[in-house]
Every structure is written in structure tokens, then in C-alpha cells.
User: Which sequence fits this backbone?
């Protein structure tokens, strides 16, 4: 049920499969270009596993422990193919090689981003809109850094989410469910790891981290079901248990305006990441590539 619309209409919930179909078609077409097939295949396989894991959760409602285990397993293709460099380019210190520690951290990056996207969701157009902005900004950064495989994967995700928003924007006719949120998180994680966009990834996705901290503050017990719907259809939330709650805490606003504010905040951080990437490549480490 759409909990914040009058009449509580029932909405289909596994629209993320449609997003995966669009992503799969785009990445298959990308095979026509002279790209590193190993990186593209690793990203595509991780995205496939993520969509499957989310679909299983949509159908059978897995426990939180099972979901965390699945998010770790989604990182296996990236680990198996050693997709990406262990170097992190820190300004102004130059490249820092994490060596084996980098691969140890990879599953945790997947677990954080997949679950981070999943807990920053629940309103019409929110997760798809945030994913669209995040993927577009990071795709632009990937182009600046010369990480074309990551750029193609992120642009493919952005295209799928843009199409999906036609049916997911307020008033939503379909939700993406776990198959969609896990897909977004996996593509973001695998593209960041496979490309030279690790630092800008932290910058662009910082709102997800802030939301995760908010949610962890009450041990993830609060949900969108706790939001109070006022007689005029606007929303109000008593506690700051999520980043979106900041915009409806103490005063009510309608769902569409709240979602737009969350997306606007994501645009700010995405823009900062792009500016940082341009400055980094132009002035700090000229000609930086993968």
C-alpha cells in the first residue's frame, strides 16, 4: 500500500526488474565499443546478483541478517575479477596503494551502499530520483578521470532510472522494491571500485551516509510507516530518524516537495564531486587515468 496517499492504494512493488532490464540492454550494447570487457562483465554480474537478491527479499521478506549476508555475496564478481585498482588518489598526497586491504574492504562497501540505498527509500520517486542524480554525477566524474567502463555502467543505470521515474514519480504507479534499491547500490559500488572515482564517490554519496547514521541512531526501527499524514495530505515526522525527516520535522509539507528537497540536496553533493574531479585532474594530478 502507498501509505501516504488517500485511500491507501495498492501499488506493484517489483519495478526494479524493469530497471535491471534496461541496464542489461545498455551494457550488452556497450559490448560494441572498445572497452575492458572484464570490468563491464564484473559490474554486470554484480548488478544481476543484486537484482536477484532484492527480488528474493521482495517475494519472501528475508531477515536483516540474511540481507546483509546477500549484500556481501554480491561483491564476489568484483573480487573474483579483481576489477579495479587498489590505489586511492588523495589530494594533495597523490596515490595511496591499499594493497590487499582494499579487497578486504570491498564487501563492506557493497554492504553499506546496497543497504544504504535501501534504507533511504519509501516515498514516490525518492530512491529512483536520488539514484538518477548519483549515477549521473558519478558518471560525469568517471569521464573526467577516464574510467570509461564505470561511466558507461553509471550512464546505463541513469537511463534506466530516468525511464522508471515516468511511473514512479508522484503519484507513483509502481515501486521499485528491493530489486531496484539493491540494484542501484550494487552498480554504484561496483562502478566506484572498478574506476578511479573512489574519493568523488564518497563526496557524491555523502547524503546516503548521513541518512544511514540517522537510521542507525534508532537501530533502524523507524520506517516510513511512522510518518504522520495530516488531513490536507501533507506529512509530518516527530523524530529525526532519517535524512528525509529533516524536511518534515516540526512542520508539515507534501510528499512531492519533501522528495524534491532530498533530490536537490543530492544534486549539491553530486555537483561538488564533479567540481572536485575536474580540479583534481586539471591541477593536482594532471592526466590521471585508471
Assistant:
Amino acid at each position: 500500500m502507498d501509505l501516504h496517499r488517500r485511500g491507501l492504494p495498492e501499488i506493484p512493488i517489483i519495478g526494479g526488474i524493469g530497471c535491471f532490464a534496461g541496464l542489461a540492454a545498455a551494457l550488452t550494447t556497450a559490448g560494441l565499443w572498445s572497452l575492458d570487457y572484464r570490468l563491464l562483465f564484473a559490474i554486470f554480474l554484480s548488478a544481476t546478483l543484486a537484482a536477484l537478491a532484492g527480488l528474493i527479499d521482495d517475494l519472501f521478506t528475508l531477515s536483516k541478517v540474511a540481507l546483509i549476508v546477500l549484500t556481501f555475496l554480491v561483491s564476489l564478481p568484483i573480487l573474483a575479477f579483481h576489477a579495479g585498482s587498489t590505489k586511492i588518489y588523495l589530494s594533495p598526497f597523490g596515490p595511496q596503494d591499499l594493497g590487499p586491504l582494499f579487497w578486504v574492504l570491498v564487501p563492506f562497501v557493497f554492504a553499506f551502499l546496497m543497504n544504504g540505498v535501501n534504507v533511504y527509500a519509501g516515498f514516490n520517486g525518492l530512491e529512483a530520483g536520488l539514484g538518477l542524480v548519483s549515477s549521473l554525477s558519478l558518471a560525469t566524474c568517471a569521464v573526467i578521470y577516464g574510467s570509461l567502463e564505470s561511466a558507461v555502467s553509471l550512464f546505463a543505470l541513469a537511463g534506466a532510472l530516468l525511464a522508471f521515474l515516468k511511473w514512479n514519480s508522484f503519484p507513483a504507479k509502481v515501486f521499485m522494491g528491493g530489486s531496484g534499491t539493491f540494484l542501484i547500490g550494487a552498480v554504484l559500488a561496483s562502478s566506484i571500485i572498478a574506476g578511479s572515482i573512489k574519493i568523488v564517490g564518497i563526496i557524491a554519496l555523502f547524503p546516503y551516509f548521513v541518512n544511514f547514521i540517522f537510521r542507525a541512531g534508532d537501530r533502524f526501527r523507524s520506517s516510513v510507516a511512522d510518518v504522520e499524514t495530516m488531513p490536507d495530505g501533507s506529512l509530518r515526522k516527530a523524530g529525526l530518524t532519517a535524512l528525509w525527516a529533516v524536511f518534515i520535522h516540526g512542520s508539515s509539507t507534501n510528499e512531492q516537495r519533501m522528495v524534491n528537497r532530498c533530490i536537490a540536496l543530492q544534486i549539491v553533493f553530486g555537483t561538488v564531486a564533479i567540481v572536485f574531479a575536474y580540479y583534481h585532474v586539471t591541477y593536482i594530478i594532471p592526466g590521471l587515468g585508471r
